[in-house]
UniProtKB/TrEMBL annotation:
It holds the Pfam family YgjP-like. Residues 65-147 form the YgjP-like metallopeptidase domain. This is Unannotated protein. It comes from freshwater metagenome.
Length: 160
């Protein structure tokens, strides 16, 4: 990691990768006491947006299993779940007949509670294939449901 202080830079802090090295650009006037905190924040931001950090299908399957065990009342029959790039109008989809779940790649860099909500929503469709009262009752156990829905609605509104 390399920290570069710039006399021209007044307020903004930025970072980028140069191969395996992280370069953080900060204003020269930044107090040394704030430097470490700013650098850590920028590295975390880079890590969140780094394509090398995107979760794999295996990690998604493990997370789905954890969510199913924690939130769903019955053990699920075997199912498949994977990230897909061809799903741009839905966050996730489920085909109960063949027990397959597809999750949009757009979720890969979103907060974990949002990904968990979409995965749990699709897992719940393996139990209740529609959006009936039974389905809503099943989903009610996820405490971050409203927060995740709000996040997705906000994201959709700003990216349309």
């Amino acid at each position: 990691m390399e920290v570069r202080r710039s006399k021209r830079r007044r307020r903004t802090v930025s970072a980028y990768r140069d191969g395996d090295k992280v370069i953080v650009l900060i204003p020269a006037s930044t107090p040394r006491s704030q430097e470490r905190e700013l650098v850590e924040e920028m590295v975390q931001r880079l890590d969140r947006t780094d394509p090398r950090q995107k979760p794999s299908d295996e990690a998604l399957a493990q997370r789905a299993q954890t969510l199913a065990e924690k939130y769903l009342p019955e053990k699920l029959e075997p199912y498949s779940i994977r990230w897909v790039r061809n799903q741009n109008t839905r966050w996730g989809s489920c085909t109960p007949a063949d027990r397959s779940i597809r999750i949009s790649h757009r979720l890969q860099l979103m907060p974990q509670y949002v990904v968990d909500y979409v995965v749990l929503h699709e897992l719940a469709h393996l139990v209740v294939p529609d959006h009936s009262a039974s389905f809503k009752e099943l989903m009610a156990v996820y405490k971050d449901q409203a927060k995740a829905q709000g996040f997705l609605e906000g994201w959709s509104a700003t990216s349309s």
